[in-house]
Design goal:
The complex is a heterodimer of chains A (179) and B (110). Helix content of chain A is 68%, strand content 0%. By secondary structure, chain A is mostly helical. The longest helix of chain A has 25 residues. Chain A is extended, with a radius of gyration of 22 Å. In chain B, helix 2 packs antiparallel against helix 3. Chain B is elongated. At the A-B interface, helix 1, helix 2, helix 3, helix 4 and helix 5 of A face helix 1, helix 2 and helix 3 of B.
């Protein structure tokens, strides 16, 4: 069965996927920025993270796309939702009751976006003569992280930083019993 | 034509929109967790730009380029550390004051 009444879009599938992902990402991000309930903002952030992961996949960055889902959605977002739930009594102070500040923020955001859009639009970047298939990058990333001449030391420093930050967070978040 | 071929500019525009959404959240919210959500949006915007430049440079060079992707992975690590520390601080503030409204945390104000 063919859908002959539809225009032939088979040559446009990457474009369609890109515009779908971009629309989802941007709308979800705007929702996360202005949602009147903090839990809705967290779910908007989740949709934005998934959209960004899809954009990474479109760009041939497979390892980064999966890291995005594992670290952002599986780690940071869960932490954020825990933070929301543990501080749920402060629902009233989202900042929505200050229309002047809100209007100022929205104006600044819109103006900055238009300035950036004009700057991006008026710049011509060097483009490839013909688009090549993206190559898998996981192996190259692994070799770069474990090569002492490339990224081994930054990689180890980052792991020490993460360890220190997590120990510090556990220390800070403990409940004080004495006071 | 409605759907132009997707180039670097399109990805940069998505990144710019994401950054501006994060900026609006950081500027207008008073809840500390909502401000953290805005910061995560801004970090993601930067990451999109890095991966997009990486990809289109690889297309020009004709060989895989991973510098931008390595940078993004380090940003992921920093974002995870930042979120953990920030939420620990927020919980601590909530413990002592019962509020996480950043407008009311003005003890250090001169």
């Amino acid at each position: 069965m063919s859908l002959a009444f539809l225009p032939d879009l088979s040559g446009l599938i990457p474009e369609l996927i890109f515009y779908g992902l971009a629309a989802m990402t941007v709308l979800a991000a705007i929702g996360a920025a202005v949602a009147p309930k903090i839990v809705h903002a967290a779910f908007g952030l989740m949709a934005a993270f998934f959209g960004v992961a899809g954009l990474y996949a479109m760009l041939g960055a497979d390892f980064v796309a999966f890291s995005q889902i594992i670290v952002y959605v599986g780690g940071i977002l869960v932490l954020l939702v825990f933070g929301v739930l543990l501080t749920a009594r402060t629902e009233a102070s989202l900042g929505l009751e200050r229309p002047l500040r809100r209007a100022f923020a929205l104006t600044t955001g819109a103006v900055l976006f238009f300035v950036l859009a004009i700057a991006i639009d008026s710049t011509t970047f060097p483009a490839a003569t013909e688009a090549s298939e993206p190559l898998p990058t996981t192996s190259a990333i692994g070799h770069a992280f474990l090569d002492p001449e490339k990224m081994l030391i930054p990689f180890e420093v980052a792991s020490v930083l993460l360890l220190a930050a997590l120990i510090g967070a556990a220390y800070l978040a403990r409940r004080r019993r004495s006071s | 034509m409605l759907l132009a071929a997707v180039g670097l500019n399109h990805y940069l525009l998505v990144g710019a929109a994401l950054f501006c959404a994060g900026l609006v959240a950081v500027m207008s919210r008073r809840n500390a967790v909502a401000i953290l959500i805005g910061i995560e949006l801004m970090l993601n915007a930067a990451n999109i730009n890095l991966v997009a430049f990486d990809h289109f440079r690889a297309q020009i060079d004709g060989q895989p380029v991973i510098d931008g992707q390595l940078f993004v992975l380090f940003v992921l690590v920093i974002a995870a550390a930042e979120a953990a520390v920030a939420l620990a601080l927020i919980l601590n503030v909530f413990d002592t004051r019962d509020r996480i409204d950043v407008d009311e945390l003005d003890t250090l104000k001169g």
